[in-house]
Amino acid sequence: MDIWLDNFSHYLSVEKGLAQNTLESYRRDLTKFLSFLKKNKVDEPADISRDLINRYLNSLKQEGRAPSTISRNIASIRSFFNFLVLEGIVEENPARDLETPKLEKKLPRVLTAKEVDKLLGQPKLGEPNGLRDKAMLELLYASGIRVSELVTLNVSDFNPEVGFLRCKGKGMKERIVPIGSVAINYVQEYIQNHRYKLTKKTDEKALFVNHHGRRLTRQGFWKILKKYVQKSKISGDITPHTLRHSFATHLLENGADLCSVQEMLGHSDISTTQIYTQITRRKIREVYDKTHPRA
Length: 295
Prior knowledge:
295 residues; hpI Integrase, Chain A; 14 helices; 58% helix
């Protein structure tokens, strides 16, 4: 079974082109599932039944795993068996018709315009790190890209002349995203006056680098953001994705159409983008309740 897990990981990486974070998520889920199978002395794919998979899912429930975690595990197991069917190892997918638990749809945390200004005003612009951080935060809010897309940007992906950014999203799908003049100015200043102080070399392609002169990581950006959130004293759980949520919500609040926002975010399904319309409707309701004399 471990061999087939390795083959499946290779298939997802090479043929499907999935991102490293997605690959690691699949592998974690399936490694735990295979451990369960070994404890039950099942070592052949053909011996795995729907009942056995349900027993595993029940064990996750007993461990107190969230419905979202169980749903993700079902998706991982189902994909794994789809691969085994494709390879002719099993005839049918025992996880094909498994019911996924109902998930509570939580609206994402969105910053107000004032909170965005407060957060983006924290970096000290006189220092190379500070200008880099300012450029990153402005770029995230200006473009709505994911943090994984931010840290994989190369200098060549930034085109200030036409005001666009080229990035690679999920499944290595490339898209072109517009960016505003404020973000362009800070990124240009960082590249022209501060980036070389961090890289200390000319062959580094990465747009944003750490103090060692190498490409900044997702974890590195998380630490940077956490520092500025604490300094700004903004309450709530603020993550890199919060700026993406704020980008989409503020666009819709100011009249952008849903299809344009979908394209900028890189969502393959517009239903994913529609969650932001719920946020804007909620805000309209709040404004109405506060301002209408008979609300």
